[in-house]
Design brief:
Layout: E1 6-10, H1 12-16, H2 24-38, E2 42-47, H3 48-55, H4 61-72, E3 75-77, H5 81-92, H6 101-112, E4 117-119, H7 129-142, E5 148-150, H8 152-155
């Protein structure tokens, strides 16, 4: 039976946790997720926003992160008016605070890109029940499909 490959939007924090030696359990989960991406269990996507956030990192971290982008070769979703308008809906509806526009944009990139899951370690604004429920409501009203917002630990496949 042919299975559809789950399409993951990897928000910037996921890339950062590849090097998070201060959080070894999260780092291990992140590395396992990338192993599974490399085994074609998932398709990886990012946006120009992820690249912009990485480019703003100080060196040598920036270099390390860009090397990981080259190594894992995620598909890149380009900016669009549709992405910006959907992000504005999330902010207008109080889902994401206005000062955290990039968080709203990450979700919007994934939704407009017709992806399945936003993967993030951002528990403040993204990986939260409230955010998932309210994004689902806005997406329904705006004619978009549901999207999951999960941590890498929720996404990786554990062999039983």
């Amino acid at each position: 039976m042919l299975m559809k490959i789950t399409k993951l939007y990897l928000e910037t924090s996921v890339w950062n946790f590849l090097f998070a030696t201060d959080a070894p359990e999260h780092q291990e989960s992140t590395k396992l997720l990338f192993e599974q991406i490399n085994e074609n269990k998932f398709e990886a996507y990012i946006s120009r926003l992820v690249l912009d956030e990485i480019i703003r990192c100080p060196k040598p971290k920036q270099t390390l992160l860009l090397e990981q982008i080259k190594k894992h070769k995620p598909f890149i979703i380009e900016p669009s008016l549709e992405v910006n308008q959907l992000a504005e809906e999330y902010i207008k509806n109080g889902i994401i605070p206005v000062r955290y526009i990039p968080d709203a944009l990450h979700i919007a990139y994934a939704v407009v890109g017709d992806l399945d899951i936003v993967v993030s370690w951002n528990f403040a604004h993204l990986v939260r029940s409230k955010t998932r429920n309210e994004v689902a409501a806005v997406n329904l009203l705006q004619g978009y499909k549901q999207i999951e917002i999960c941590s890498p630990e929720e996404v990786i496949i554990y062999d039983t």
